[in-house]
Amino acid sequence: MSGAELGARLREGDLSAAPAALNLLESSTEADREQARLLLHEVSPAVLGGEAPGHIVGVTGPPGAGKSTLLSALLHVWRVRGKSVAMLAVDPSSKRSGGSLLGDRARIDFDPADKAVLIRSTAAGQRLGGLAPATRTAAQTLAAAFDVVVIETVGVGQAETEVADVADTVVVVVQPGSGDVLQFLKSGIMETPDVLVVTKADLGQIAVASRRDLSAALRSLGTRATRVLAVSSLPPPQGIDELVGVLDEQRASTDLTARRLLARRSGALLDFVTEHGERGLRGLGGRHVAEHLLAEQDPRLDPQALVSILERAAQTS
Amino acid sequence: MMRTYAGHSTARASNELYRRNLAKGQTGLSVAFDLPTQTGYDPDDELARGEVGKVGVPVVHRGDMAALMDGIPLGEMNTSMTINATAAWLLALYIVAAENQDPPTEQHSLQGTTQNDIIKEFLARGTYAFPPAPSMRLIADMIAYTVEHVPKWNPINICSYHLQEAGATPVQEISYAMSNAIAVLDATRERLGDRAPELIGDVFGRISFFVNAGVRFVEEHAKLRAMGILWEELGRERYGVSDERRLRFRYGVQVNSLGLTEAQPENNVQRIVLEALAVTLGRDARARAIQLPAWNEALGLPRPWDQQWSLRIQQVLAYETDILEYPDIFEGSKVMDGLVAELLEGARAEMAVVAEHGGAVEAVPYMKAALVDSHRARIQRIESGEQIVVGQNRFAETEPSPLTADAEGGILVVDPAVEAEQIEAVRRWRAERDQQAVDAALAELARVASDEDGGENLMIPTIAAARAGATTGEWAKTLRDVFGSYRAPTGVGEASAAPADTELARLREEVEQLAEKLGRRPKILVGKPGLDGHSNGAEQIAVRARDSGMDVVYEGIRLTPAQIAASALQEGVHVIGLSILSGSHRELIPAVMDALREAEVDVPVVVGGIIPDQDVPQLERAGVAAVYTPKDFDISRIMHDIVGIVGERNGVPASV
Fold first, then answer.
1. Do B213 and B70 have their domain in common?
2. Contact (CB, 8 A) for A306 and A265
3. Does the N-terminal or the C-terminal CB of chain A have fewer CB atoms within 10 Å?
């Protein structure tokens, strides 16, 4: 099936087109990349007549923080509320072999017959804490069809920075008593997320203390926008409904057009650098010039179109 | 004590088998349950499909237990039950069956063992039902109950057996088993509360072990001596036990199955004999009960004649040799003492690591990953020829075997009609019982289960539910609803990368070339349909595929065909690898193929497991691209095959 057809089906809310669309976006063959460009055009703001309606939520945190259990609980609440959900789980891959073990989907409970849920695991590729190259475009594409698109990454410190580039809302998940997140926040290594979730609230006192410490750290940084929540995903779950409510509020208070535009432009620049390296960037006259060039473009263009513009500029300069 | 692990098809058929075995001189019973019974599902549950009556007997309610033990006076019997997650339930059914026999037997005089070891289920065997914490509570409750009310029962059998099957080194086998025992004893001590000081000695004395013995039988014997020393030390120091009898390390043994080969299976007989020596040679560390596997276990389910052969091995050892006539023959041996000291040192260090993780329950992910690593190293030694397996990677040439020449290839095949009969039977049972009594009993079970701190023992409502006529699936579901469901760690994500030898380098090159042509890194889905929890094979395939450079979606055990199809579709995989060892491939593989067709997933499927030769054509007709059995020990070769299959299916065959 052609990229344009898949894009059109997604635009019309046909969720069954998603797996084939993702296969296409992940592919590096010349023919597939051409089809991917057509697909992306079909779900670009220019064709959609506005930003893709889905809510792109980045969820990140250190291993063992309880992300998968939390996502299971969130998925359940979203489905009860009738929202379709796509989850992009990004796993680190082996440096040596290039291969990776993608085990996360096994930890998320869902009904295999439920067509409104899609879970896709991708390897992060070679960049530490980064997203798989196709993950950004995948998220933007799926947001045309799914109500919620989750990007799950592992790590803390740098991981949430890249997620922040593409997500509308960034959630950092920490378990009680993990001091490193507190340190990262204070030292500024970590950018402040939109929502901080302390898991394992069933642990009681220690979870309460963690939540208090994080709130205090955020206040001392002068950040008031970040919400801190404590949840327990064990039966009976606590705080999950509240978290879903907070995510909805965050989404409503975000200037989506500005945030998505930023995401498309920074994504295009990243893709350009991945493809052509720092040398390519210098050919354009440096990062600043490139950013300036991107800022002048039609805000409704998709990232692939923006990359093409950069490439043409690099050739003529 | 001599027994053979047995049970299949139905309670009635198994009862006949037990009576025959007892008549041949067997002195106890060892009950094998089918996987639905072990994991808490009724025969009509979706997950039970293809598994009913396969690896053991289905016991769904007190009526089945009564039929299983019909005509066998339970007051005189010593019964070992290989049952873990649902051990409390099966003991309850056994207690009820005994009180309903004519003449009745009070629970006070029942003798036997329930395996009841959940940690090794998370680590190696996979038949768990509930999350770790409530599982430990169930175990502790059962121990606390039996120590008072069924005092001659061994409520738990700490298993190191399955750890070795999953690749454990002797040091790992010793240290993980001991750490496991500590977790159980600590939980029970807490459960006993004020009565702990009075009863903990009895509890310690009732704990027995179930160990493995491999073919390196000198080292294996040293391992058992080391375990005895550690156990006594633990009793004295941690639990304040001083009674010599209670401090004795009591263990039963099933000798190694991992080392048994499908190639030239007759060689397994001498392996089994040598392994039996490991646990009988020295009196100071001699097994109390021995079970020997059948020579053809790697081929499929053994027949009565195969089991008789295993029993005869024990009888020759006991009655013809002079092995039982001497005191400990290793007393004063410098070599043996040195070996023991070395193992003790390693085990103590590893126990300290487990303790640092917060004990055996918390350390499950750590231990699991360590086992996957050890097993991978073992397989690589065999592939490279460093470790010799006669008839497999050396001396592989063979004359045709008359032993496997008959139509079924020398194994027992369970009649597929059994499943339908059992489904019919459980529905009839539910229709004919007093439903109100069952509902009330299950509600009471749920109440006690929810009241975590109430100190009420779960065995009481469990026995009441057994009496009322509840089923295995109903009992387990009631507890699942309270405790939540759980998936154990797979260990594969943490497994370290393989050292790159030339073989692996060549594979990576093949995978890179394929990735280039496909435009995406080859992606494989590895999974185990059905209830079989023996995940070693699937784990090793997953790890090697990763090390070869593929993207691997590994979902672990207990998957329904619908789950596999949904994952394959959503993940956009190029190939699917399925592993089944329980003999349910005849039903489950075609079911998976149907589910894939329904989901419009058109990718090649390869199957690995204990698949008899005569079943291969049927699987191929169902659309399977390749079948691998234990004789395909070279995983690199399998990977090479898979790369070829994916290339061909995608129209990009490998260039020569």
1. no
2. yes
3. C
